[in-house]
Write a structure and sequence with these properties.
5 strands, 12 helices, 5-stranded parallel sheet
Length: 260
């Protein structure tokens, strides 16, 4: 599990050390990478370390206070959480203006801190996932056509190996793409939709199985992804214009009539 990086800022050393050392950050998916007594030190650190995700800061500090620090971080992709001994309207207003994630009051309750960082973890995880899919889509849009063809080949192989239990979402996960992007590329490269191709593969395998008299029709339905044999029968007839029973009978009739 990825640990998001936190910087803690408070001019009261005991409170700062307690936050850094006594709270189970790792259990919530975070790690404290540095702590400082004022905002100026925080900014210096952030200039040198671009991978910080969160700043947990007291509002009242010397040099650069928490509000000034949050203003300086407005253009950065860093979440800010305030804590203060005072419930001041001006502080709350500044928190809203500067897009502060949460405003906690001292003494900070353990359950409030847990709740705050659980919520933050959820937000950061969703943002990280969105960035991954966006990056994949951007890269793929500039990828050579051969790369897209290779991608589709992998998906075709996946469908062939998993047609019984297969979905667009599962296939997309197998090639590390978003379902919507895979759907677009698949249709463009093959001329048919993902679901149409999956149906084609299932029906072709069903035909082969119907040629084996030892395999029951309800078994075939299950083997090609249908929980209900009636649904399979309807789908087969819609696809071929003939029922599975008639297809099987027609096949064996031809076999019997063929010369030795």
């Amino acid at each position: 599990m990825r640990l998001y990086k936190i910087v803690v800022a408070d001019d009261e050393s005991k409170i700062r050390e307690g936050l850094v050392n006594l709270f189970p950050w790792n259990n919530l998916g975070f790690e404290v990478v540095a702590d400082f007594s004022n905002g100026h030190e925080v900014l210096d650190y952030l200039d040198m370390h671009k991978d910080v995700d969160v700043v947990l800061t007291d509002i009242q500090m010397p040099d650069i206070n928490g509000i000034e620090l949050s203003e300086a971080l407005l253009e950065k992709d860093i979440r800010v959480i305030f804590f203060s001994s005072y419930q001041d309207f001006a502080y709350a207003k500044a928190a809203i203006t500067n897009h502060v994630f949460e405003y906690l009051t001292k003494p900070i309750k353990y359950e409030d801190l847990v709740s705050c960082f659980n919520k933050l973890r959820t937000v950061l995880d969703k943002e990280a996932e969105s960035k991954v899919f966006s990056s994949q889509k951007t890269e793929a849009s500039f990828a050579p056509s051969t790369d897209k063809i290779d991608l589709v080949k992998k998906v075709l192989k996946y469908i062939e190996n998993n047609y019984r239990k297969c979905s667009l979402e599962e296939a997309a996960g197998d090639v590390f793409m978003s379902p919507s992007y895979l759907s677009t590329v698949f249709s463009k490269e093959t001329g048919i939709t993902f679901s149409e191709y999956l149906q084609k593969v299932r029906m072709e395998h069903a035909c082969d199985m119907l040629k084996d008299p030892s395999v029951k029709q309800y078994q075939i339905a299950s083997l090609v992804g249908y929980d209900n044999p009636k649904n399979f029968s309807r789908a087969f007839k819609a696809y071929f214009g003939i029922s599975p029973q008639d297809y099987r009978a027609k096949h064996f009739s031809k076999t019997e009539d063929s010369p030795l």
